[in-house]
Amino acid sequence: SGSLSSGQGIEDEMLAGNDKPNLMIVSEAGHFMQSLNGDGRNQQSHLTHLMHLILQAYSASSTRLRTRALAGKPSKDIPNPVLHVFGASTPEKLSEVLRPENLTEGFLNRMLVVMGKANVGMIRGVDQFKVPEHIRAAQFDFMRMPSDDVVVTIDQSAWKDEDRIMRRYDAPAEDEGMRQLMARSYEKVMRIAGTLAVWDMTKDKLTPTVTVDHLRWAENYVDAANQTMYRFMNEFLFDEKVHKDAKKILDSIDFYLTREGAQQANATQRVLIERGFAPRSLVLKRTKMTAPRMSEAIQHLLMAEMIETITLRVDGCKTESTGLRRL
User: Fold this and answer.
1) For 118-129, how does the pLDDT look when each residue is reduced to its tens digit (9 = 90+)?
2) Distance in angstroms (rounded) separating the CA atoms of residues 218 and 109
3) Distance between CA atoms of residues 302 and 115, nearest Å
């Protein structure tokens, strides 16, 4: 009863699934978030409950999720709920509907985010593929696990790494956006490392154990996801002046590295272009910014690790030239 577009529907699916994991696929995540966020005045109650349930299910995964009470039926407990949400959207659409509160209230920092390259050509889909043998073996070993509760342990050699990761993510961050993203990073690392430990079980060792390799792989994965979200926030999400200026600079860098843009460069500037850098002087001219305003935007891009710069002196020139390149 109820669709997966409502918190009530997800609760019903969880109860009917006999404690099995649940996967919620959102093909248009931008429209989904637009519905969840509403306008604050006419927000529909079932969508409010859906957002609350997604947050609650994540936090209750190590304990129990208490369902709603129905007429004549008491609430029930769902032990260790597992709710996966997979969504896809264009960054432009997502940036229109996301709010800063989605980060501060803990929704976005629960997610693992990847971003594809722009303007990628279409390719023919794969008709079929063969599951690798090591995956099949892991699946077989997984099915041989005892039906009772299985405890994932941490190898003693990994204790120092776990403590290092916890302290690293707990350290104060100068940037508020990154500080918010780091809030649940340690938790995500441990979830991923535990999952890897389960998949790395063998028929001779059915007790999943987190190792140093599991922790470091998970840490790298979460770091990449955090940087992707941070890049999205800086490039698309907020409409502050510096972010708009940064977008103009990135567009100008892309332009001068095309054939059309390179034709507008002089001999000295073409040396930079041949090395893959857009001349800063041309970028300034195209964006029509003042020099201090452009410097502020460039500093923002450098801190976000979205561009790099190079400074060199071309033979025959008295002054140095600076170039900018996307990372």
Assistant:
1) 777 777 777 777
2) 16
3) 19
Asked whether the beta carbons of 290 and 245 are under 8 A apart, the reply is: no
Any alpha helices (H) in 118-184, and if so which ranges?
Answer: 133-143, 159-170, 176-182
How many beta carbons lie within 10 A of that of residue 219, not counting itself?
A: 22
Helices 291-303 and 241-256, packing angle to 10 deg: 90
Q: Residue 278: exposed, middle, or buried by beta-carbon count in 10 A (0-12, 13-18, 19+)?
A: buried
Residues contacting 84, CB < 8 A, separation 6+: 21, 22, 23, 24
Stretch 251-280: mean pLDDT: 92
Tell me how far apart the alpha carbons of residues 290 and 83 are, in angstroms, rounded to a whole number: 50
- What the block records as the tokens of 220 is 């790298």
Among 45-54, 242-251, 297-306, whose mean pLDDT is lowest? 45-54
Q: What is the DSSP letter of 110?
A: G
Q: Measure CA of the first residue to CA of the last residue in the chain; give whole Å.
A: 49
Give which of 249, 251, 306 is closest to 280, Cα–Cα: 249
DSSP 85: E
User: 50: how many CB neighbours lie within 10 A of its CB?
Assistant: 22
- Supply the pTM of this predicted model: 0.66
CB of 169 closer than 8 Å to CB of 230:
no
Q: Residue length, the chain?
A: 327
For residues 265 and 274, give the distance between their C-alpha atoms in angstroms, rounded to a whole number. Answer: 11
CB neighbours of residue 11 within 10 Å: 24
Is residue 291 within 8 A of residue 274, CB to CB? The reply is no
Taking a C-beta distance cutoff of 8 angstroms, is the pair 309, 322 a contact?
A: yes
Judge whether 203 and 141 are in contact, CB under 8 Å. yes
Distance CA 189, CA 166 (A): 9
